[in-house]
Amino acid sequence: MRGMTPPPPEPTPAEMRAYQTGTLPLERFDVVDAWLAGLTAQEQARLLDGDRDAATDAHQQLLVATEPGTPKAWFLGERLRSRYRHVDRIGAGGMGVVDAVHDQVLDRDLALKRCRPREPQEGVDDYALRLRSFRREAAITAQLEHPAIVPVHDIGVGPYGEPAFLMKRLEGQPLTSTIARRRLGAHVDLADLIQIMVRISEAVGHAHSRSIVHRDLKPDNLIVGDMGAVYVIDWGLATVAGRTGPASTALGSPSGLTGFGVGTRAWMAPEQAAGAAADPRMDVFALGGILMAVLTGAEPRCDVAGAHGPLPRVDLGPLSAARIPPGLAAVARRCLADAPGDRYADGGAVAAELRRWLSAGVTSAEHPPLARVLLLRLRRSPRLITALVVAVVGLAAAGAWEFRHRLAHHDDVLTRLGHVMARVAIDDAGSVRVALHEVHDLAGLGTAADEIRAAEVRLSAAGEALDLRAAQEVERQRLQSFAATYRIRGPWPAEVADLDAALTDLGLALTPERWAADAELIRRHALRDQILATLVQLQRALIVTAREHPARRTIPSVIAAATADAAWHALARLLERCELAAHDLRLPAGLDAEQALQSPVTADILLATYGPEARLVRYASSRLATDPGAFWPRVIAARAALQDGRPAEAERHALVALGAEPMSLWPHLVLGYVALAGQDAARVVAEADAGLAANPDNLELAILRAAGLARGGQVAAAQAAVDAAHAAAHLQYHLQHPVGHPMERSVQALVDSGVRIPAAEPLLGPVVHPAH
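Given the sequence above, the corresponding structure tokens read:
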């Protein structure tokens, strides 16, 4: 029929894949959204839930997004569990749940938002609509780059196959809390509140410049953090300007697809409730309601009953209170005008008005008389007052010209100083240095000495703080690199020298005469825990390679005196009475180990420092129940299983550890011994080679490789490798004094294959000889 709108075109399979992962450009996203809305509820649910058996041939291609060929830039459920460790639940809403997770690769805290699974009482049409709204939020938020809009880091599939996306974790409270405190009489600075409203309006204005309308602005969707940070969240109902939202039933909360309109009825514009096409002035109406709540504590509509029917008019009476600045009240009234044409055009215009009030005390919406504008500007501008005084004095006497000239020069210097201080980024060392140089130049002009000196003091202090922070960051990275190196290479020849040099550079002596001073330095240092961890690593290396080193008797005392933490005290006592069992440190008996395992920091150090022991294995098992990808618990569990004759279990743990740290020799060492037990000579050599790639100085890997060669029939090559190792005394020790260490299996395999171990006095040495 004439006048009917043609149905949206069917999307291509590629577009549908992008729609399902939230990567489709917003213009096409809405087209695909409209096409899905034209299907039946059952068809929508099948397509979005992945029911391949019930889908038609034409639609089966749409399910490719869940197949194993998904681009690896998207996280998948299993990859999500191995990389991102669950911390706690942040919150839940009508469409999804938000969990706090820790990125174990980049060592940062993030938020994971997942779409809630379909509930038994939820209709398929509501579920399909919720899936589409969730993907819409991910697609829109990912395309908006603004400091007040939460960045999306990754989009993919959650632990149960549900749509999910990763974003920055926010620290703060909803604006609702600030409004409630102000309503109860708590002092909240009005200028600070208007600064928050400026940032909110700027973020919404940025979305409007991209033709995106939020459609659900309200205090609950505005997060206020520390240092003035503000975030506009929950973009699930946003759409392109000119589009209408789908008409459906509510999603079970006041914020949803309600009746004829999309949004929250208490805050929406009249035309939005009537189902009009999306328009930035709908968001402007909501900004006016939020500004009214900030100023008065009253919501624009407090008596919205039900989800249907006409909206009551907004009660603007609270804006007439004497304590409300008239300029701000005028802005709120204009935003809340019934007719869209009477409101501001977009969020950017609202932000400009609020900035005008902050700088001049008036707004264009107020239409103030000229005299009041001049008075306010005079009160807020020292330059105008100075100019007026200079003009009066100039009329009084011709000699005042020199006075005016000097005063103008002084004012000019102050203005230039103000520009310098306004431009400087106080947390950027380069910017601070440039500003300090410019202030030094102003000091040569011979005026405004006090102000210039104050600026120099402030900039110098900021520069010193930034230099100290940069130096500490270099020290932190240096100390953390030692633990990372041991995690990948195990002990290395220069380990003792490298650790000792780093601690010496920090000012530590580690001598009996200086241990108290060392402990005091560590106690006050910003990198205390990193320094303590480095001391433990040095103590382990000294026990293995240099037992008579004087620092070995000092380090436990320094650790115990440097902190009041009971877990560190327990670890210090363990290190003081530590013994070797073959190449592993033996964990002493007593309650100290249990106390050290109470802290995640000292527990990880124990797992990396000591050999497999029952208490550590029990702790590792409990850790893996909540953190399956944890590296050291996997390594300890693998070594314990290998020691107890469970090669299949050892292999499983080692493979997971290898996934967490692909370059590490520790999993390859376990897998090599597993292959040796299974008579797989080629795999023994391959795993040993992979470990030697990480650390070619490791004697245990070299002997394991020789055993693989011998088992594979290459006895001459194995004999040459043994002779080249120059470790006859070490190998004779493992033959004559077996204690259950895996290296004994390699040596016995060599002997059983006909390789000759040179005669020597048995003497156990380190698997990596220290550099001299």
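The radius of gyration is 35 Å. Try to locate this feature in the token string yourself.
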